[in-house]
Amino acid sequence: MKLNESMRYPHPVLSDFSSDYVTGEFRCSFVQQMTAEGELKLTAELELASADLEKLIQNQQAATGYFVVCRRTYFNFLQPAPLGRSERHFDGAKLFGTVTIRPAVWTLVPVQNFSSALIHKEFGTAVDLPKGSVVALGPEFRFSIDKKKFKPFESIFELAVAEGIEPGMVQVDPLRDRITILAEPKTHKELAEMRNVPAARNILLGSVYMPAVMEVLALLQSGDTTATGMNWYRIFKAKCDDLGIDPANRNDTPLLTAQKLLRAPLKKVISVAGTI
Fold it and tell me: Are residues 134 and 13 in contact, defined by beta-carbon separation less than 8 angstroms?
């Protein structure tokens, strides 16, 4: 079913873009998250400020929920959901690109002589609502699903050996398929071994990967766009978009932005220190 703000109905519909009701509101919010199993988890908050419509729901004459639509994959599903907070899971393999969510309240049975003191007078004192009538419509929510942005951030990095670098130090080359962290042979071997130890990985996050991210951010903020053509950049940019970060914004310091992208790596180092 296709719903939009320009549609008109022969009965009153509570929404932000119609004057069918003198007052009232259908408040909605959604949080999306991809799970480790590849499912899209939607957390919905639905709140209806209309006692008359709520009564229909309580009497099982109407239901609440939302449409989940992905035109690119032809996915179109009406998900029933109660008022209040709820969580639902969807097969992530069926979703790619732009996903839209449209909250709605619809009748489950024919409702005769529905009335409300809040309905605009143009509808008269009472209206008949056929089964399946949309009686409340929330705002449209949009987000994009790109499988790449849910890959581990570490997947865009690579360790490599390079001569001429001092022991215990690294250099960064962002102009390869992956952001390459270069070290002399002995340091490279030790870093590779640390990656296999869970506690040591947290230390690497703050001592090796965060400086590498800062180097990349400094390059992007300098106005050099060469790195934007690298294979790793799409994943990097998607991670930034997910957090509302512009990696080329010179008003944000590389240090602060890197900490946001790596989810405050210092916390992980502190947690490791607490076990010693």
Answer: yes
* Cβ–Cβ under 8 Å, residues 77 and 71: no
pLDDT computed for residue 249 by the predictor:
94
Query: Which CA distances in Å does 12 have to 3, 22, 33, 125, 209?
Result: 15, 11, 34, 12, 57
pLDDT band at 97 (very low <50, low <70, confident <90, very high): confident
Question: d(Cα 168, Cα 159) in Å, to the nearest integer?
Answer: 14
Task: Work out the percent of the chain whose per-residue pLDDT is above 90.
Answer: 61
- Tokens representing 31 are 């949080």
Give the model's pLDDT for residue 136.
Answer: 93
User: Whole-number mean pLDDT of the chain?
Assistant: 89
- Spell out the residues 6+ positions from residue 103 whose beta carbon is closer than 8 angstroms to its own: 26, 28, 44, 46, 64, 65, 66, 137, 138, 139
Separation between Cα atoms, residue 206 and residue 66, nearest integer Å: 41
d(CA 221, CA 218): 5
pTM above 0.85, yes or no: no
Q: Scanning the structure block, which residue is given the tokens 């989810």?
A: 263
Q: Of 12, 15, 33, nearest to 24 (Cα)?
A: 15
Separation CA 218–CA 224 (nearest Å): 9
pLDDT average, residue stretch 88-94: 90
Residue 165: is it exposed, middle or buried by C-beta count within 10 angstroms (0-12/13-18/19+)? middle
Burial class (CB within 10 angstroms; exposed 0-12, middle 13-18, buried 19+) of 251: exposed
